Amino acid sequence: QVQLQESGPGLVKPSETLSLNCTVSGGSVSSGSYYWTWIRQPPGKGLEWIGYVDYIGFTKYNPSLKSRTTISIDTSKNQFSLKLTSVTAADTAVYYCVRERKAAVLDYWGQGTLVTVSS
Amino acid sequence: SYDLTQPPSVSVSPGQTASITCSGDKLGDKFVYWYQQRPGQSPVLVMSQDNRRPSGIPERFSGANSGNTATLTISGTQAMDEADYYCQAWGSNTHVIFGGGTKLSVL
Question: Which residues of A54-66 are buried (b: 16+ CB within 10 A; e: fewer)?
Fold first, then answer.
């Protein structure tokens, strides 16, 4: 059974960089069949796709966040990561790491981690 | 950009049929997926590729997609079905597009 687990600081100051990791177990991020994805959900609001990375490091980002987003992959640790720069209160959200079976389905979700942007 | 529109809320009596819609331009030309999210939990896929139920999803869940509207139907709605429901489709610039979500209340 594939499991994804987010980790990282729960509190980030405005203008700083949000950094999260996602550790995958029960499956390999080196598989060419999947995109490794970040999705966020502000409190009380809907889901927003942030972007993905594939096993060779190819990335695609939401145009609205592209200038501030970097998603990377570390196959040696079976992890992928999110960095979001210059954060504001609008970036406060639950951040989910998700496995996408390429353009087929978002099939496994992490439990999500709340990141609050506040001084 | 491509938008998916859902009603903010739908109410249904226990045992009755709930229908949740998702609208978008020529949505019938795309595959639509539906996710259920209970409070404090991660979304769970309840319908794939318009009308395919993943393993473990009750038969009372069904889906359809035609024209500009996709519909998730829950027959014999139970209290445990009370949740937020999100439709999702694949885009081009924005790879994954979500609808705004519908809160299903079972009253």
Answer: bbeeebbbbeebe
